[in-house]
Amino acid sequence: MYRILIVEDDPDISMALEDDFAFEGFEVTMARDGQNGLALGTNNDFNIIILDVMLPKMNGFDVCKTFRSNGVTTPIIMLTAKSHEIDKVLGLEFGADDYITKPFSPRELQARVKAILRRSEMQVDKRPTAKFKFGDIQVDFDKYIICKKEKQLDLTTFEFSLLKFLLENENKVLSRDVLLDNLWGTDVIVDPRTVDTHIANLRRKLEDNPKKPRWIIGIRGVGYKIRSS
């Protein structure tokens, strides 16, 4: 049984989400404010977290950022009533795996949750046995550990998946559509610019100079590739 944490203060939305996911067989834990959500998500083992942005006591951006700085790698989907692009980008930059804008379709949210869970299971069940090394970066997918200059890096679940897929297709130029289909699934509609934000996050962690990347190369109008030499 999957365990899901839902951090949402709107009573109507939280009740509907709790009922929907319980009906789908999830074990649901609810939090009504950011501080409680942070405590629950930090001290318990969840498969996924649904996190609203506008919360009392502590907003969702700060909760997400604190999760990641504390080493919590649980996948996070952010809910936002804001439609401005900057709010979506901020959520991804703070470490969220995906976002969905209110009002949203419960079916779409469930599809995104299930896509992320499938991706997480693939990491466990289909991990490559190879170890990768490029420059001062070492990747061990048996243990899912990434180190730069012998210092371990904290990557989100999606960043692990993205790096894995790039390395498995080393030196191949992968379009945004290919990345979306393989990492989210063909049944989920995601803005292609979301890929750019995750690539930028990954570059900040791996590259010495993210503005002049050495490893993750963008091909204008096409997509991205990774090179290890």
Describe the structure in your own words.
The chain has 229 residues and is α/β, with parallel strands linked by helices. The chain has 2 domains: 3-122, Response regulator (Rossmann fold), CATH 3.40.50; 127-226, Arc Repressor Mutant, subunit A. The chain is built from 8 helices and 12 strands. Helix 2 (34-43) runs parallel beside helix 3 and helix 6 (157-168) packs across helix 8.
- The name of the CATH architecture of the largest domain is 3-Layer(aba) Sandwich
Structural class: alpha/beta
- Name the CATH superfamily assignment of the largest domain: Response regulator
Please indicate the count of domains: 2
Shape: globular
- The poorly predicted ranges are 124-129
* N-to-C series of helices and strands: EHEHEHEHEHEEEEHEHHEE
Helix content: 40-55%
Distance between the termini: 43 Å
Counted by DSSP, the helix tally is: 8
Number of strands: 12
Write the layout of secondary structure elements.
Layout: E1 3-7, H1 11-23, E2 27-31, H2 34-43, E3 48-52, H3 60-69, E4 76-80, H4 85-93, E5 98-101, H5 106-125, E6 131-134, E7 137-140, E8 145-148, E9 151-152, H6 157-168, E10 174-175, H7 176-183, H8 193-206, E11 216-219, E12 223-226
Parallel strand pairs: 1-2, 1-3, 3-4, 4-5
Antiparallel strand pairs: 6-7, 7-8, 8-9, 10-12, 11-12
Helix pairs in contact: 2-3, 6-8
